[in-house]
Design brief:
The chain has five helices and 13 strands. By secondary structure, the chain is of the alpha+beta class. The strands form four sheets. The protein has a five-stranded mixed sheet, with no helix packed on it. It has a three-stranded antiparallel sheet with strand order 1-2-3. The chain has a three-stranded antiparallel sheet with strand order 5-7-11, with no helix packed on it. It is elongated and about 135 Å long.
């Protein structure tokens, strides 16, 4: 009976040998995963580098667009302050200064020779009129990280450019109240002199008002959020109001706005929306208001920043 229940000869040794010997199949899944990772890793790295290049290209295009707009805005006020053979000079080369400073800290660099200015009509008129414009074109080289996108862009390094056009600044024409002509009186019969009559006083002419440089109390008012926005686009509309100007009897004032993105406006109160986020690390635009009085060459200027951050 005991012999029937006992294990057959050799069975016990075989089972023990199997427990002591590790299976060769256990290492196969790990080796296969390493081979698959080695095959697909270059593809993943190439796709990641391509996506990174597209983001860098988009950011660089926004930078060069803003640089062209800043240059056009300055050129509309000072078209003669431009020389693309020289570097930045705050007195004689302001257009180049604004274009180069706008691109500082970005992924691209702009040299003076990368900036071109053209007026319509050409050359830039000394006394511009309504309809005379100035165009600023900025070009820069962009280098790709991944060689994959070079097939679509024609090389590893290729140029990107942007242009902006602005109206040349027009000096307001002299105005003011015009003197009312005195009608010629109809001759009347000579009255009989009255020795007791008091002679009427001679009327004094109305003086012409003399305007001086305007002065304002306070600063630019911006709403909503004191010039802070979290979503660029038409949905966010900023209301901007000029400060109170000290009155001058008989004198009128003009209000000229520059919103920092290449757009301009006029009037004591304006509204404006930004299509893109602000520039620089603070994501801001600079709003400039110029108030001019009638026939006065000097003006009053104030600035304020608007942050547009998506």
């Amino acid at each position: 009976m005991n012999r029937l229940l006992a294990a057959p000869p050799g069975r016990t040794d075989l089972a023990a040998h199997r427990r002591r010997t590790p299976s060769l199949r256990r290492g196969r899944p790990h080796g296969q995963a390493l081979v698959e990772l080695a095959l697909i890793l270059p593809i993943l790295l190439t796709l990641f580098a391509s996506a990174l290049d597209l983001g860098r290209l988009y950011y660089s295009q926004i930078t060069i667009n803003n640089a062209a707009k800043e240059g056009a805005l300055e050129a509309s006020r000072n078209p003669t302050s431009f020389d693309n053979t020289k570097g930045c000079d705050a007195d004689t080369n302001r257009v180049i200064c604004l274009v180069i400073n706008e691109a500082k800290g970005s992924l691209i660099s702009i040299a003076p020779e990368d900036v071109a200015l053209a007026c319509d009509p050409s050359p830039c008129p000394a006394s511009p009129a309504i309809g005379n414009t100035v165009d600023i074109k900025v070009t820069a080289d962009f280098s790709l990280i991944s060689p994959l996108l070079s097939v679509f862009f024609g090389g590893q390094t290729f140029p990107i450019s942007s242009s902006a056009t602005a109206q040349l600044g027009v000096v307001p024409r002299p105005g003011g109240a015009a003197a009312t002509p005195t009608p010629t009186p109809t001759p009347a019969p000579s009255p009989t002199p009255d020795p007791d009559a008091t002679p009427a006083p001679t009327p004094e002419p109305t003086p012409t008002p003399v305007c001086v440089v305007p002065t304002a109390t306070g600063s630019i008012g911006i709403s909503p959020g004191s010039g802070r926005s979290a979503s660029p686009g038409p949905a966010t509309l900023f209301s901007m109001t000029a400060p109170n100007v000290d009155p001058q009897p008989g004198c009128s004032f003009t209000y000229t706005w520059s919103f920092g993105d290449g757009s301009v406006g006029s009037g004591a109160s304006v509204t404006h929306s930004y299509d893109n986020q602000g520039t620089g690390s603070t994501k801001e635009y600079t709003v400039t208001l110029v108030i001019s009085a009638t026939a006065v060459p000097e003006s009053w200027t104030d600035t304020k920043t608007v942050r547009v951050n998506p």
